[in-house]
Fold this sequence. Notes:
With 310 residues, the protein is mainly beta. 9% of the residues lie in helices and 52% in strands. It has helices at residues 2-20, 32-35, 283-286; strands at 46-54, 64-73, 79-90, 93-107, 113-127, 149-161, 165-171, 178-182, 188-193, 197-204, 206-207, 214-225, 231-240, 244-251, 255-263, 268-277, 289-298. The strands form two sheets. It has a 14-stranded antiparallel barrel with strand order 1-2-3-4-5-6-7-10-12-13-14-15-16-17.
Amino acid sequence: MKKIIYILILMLAGLNLSAQQEAMFTHYMFNKLAINPGYAGTVDAISITGIHRSQWTSFKGAPTTQNLTAHMPITGKNIGLGFSVLNDQIGPTRNTGITGDFAYKIKINERDKLSLGIKASVNFISTNLTSLEIIDQNDASFSQNISSGTLPNFGFGAYYYNKKYFAGISTPKLLQNGFDASNPAGTSIAISNEQRHYFLMGGTIFNLTADGQFKLKPTSFVKITGGAPIQMDITSSVIYNDKFSGGLSWRTGDALGLLLGFNLNDQFMFGYSFDFSYTNTTFNYNGGSHEIMLRYDIVKNKEKSMPSYF
């Protein structure tokens, strides 16, 4: 019986890593570097973004994710560089990822550019069984952690953009890596099996009023992977005076989200979102999902800086 319970825990951890290996964020439109390496260096600043997401806050051990990205253009070159760190945890299982990005920008015309990027990453996956609350404290099966795994990978992306719209296609992980783990009794099971994901993203911004005080910014994000339904996020936000924003997000699979944002100036941005299920009663028990986003752009010439919508 103990052996069966142990296997079930490992299976649940493995299933979660398969589903969550590409972390989900409602603020995807401000987390494009993690999705598409072509985004690196497309902002005329050293752009730093941090996001924290807590899912199903009423459940102990529910998923929590933190992501920190930074990218910049190389002055005088058509090159962009990026770096990101991800921490994704559910229950006893933790996934930590470190990523480097390189992009080359091609000028299409006076307005549009195409940026082609490559991404190199390494993920460190571990399961801390000693943190679990078990009935039998003397159960040897849970007396030590299972072996951790290191999964290197690489990907690529293309990002087409100007000041009014953007479109991108990418696959952050081309290799379908995996590793097995075993308990002290020798039971072995696949703890992680990375799947190849394909991402499509697009968005635009336009004035709702003649004076430009009110703007509308619709964006969309499509996620495709084998063996799973296509998932789509559609978001629409209204921006007032380039300071305040509010919007709604819809995700296939019955999730709605509310987004609020505030720009302290052209360099500092704050965002908050709340997600909940609208087709079943799980929200009554899981407490929904919360997300906080902070972005800071370090610009050389503050007098010429403009708000960055993407």
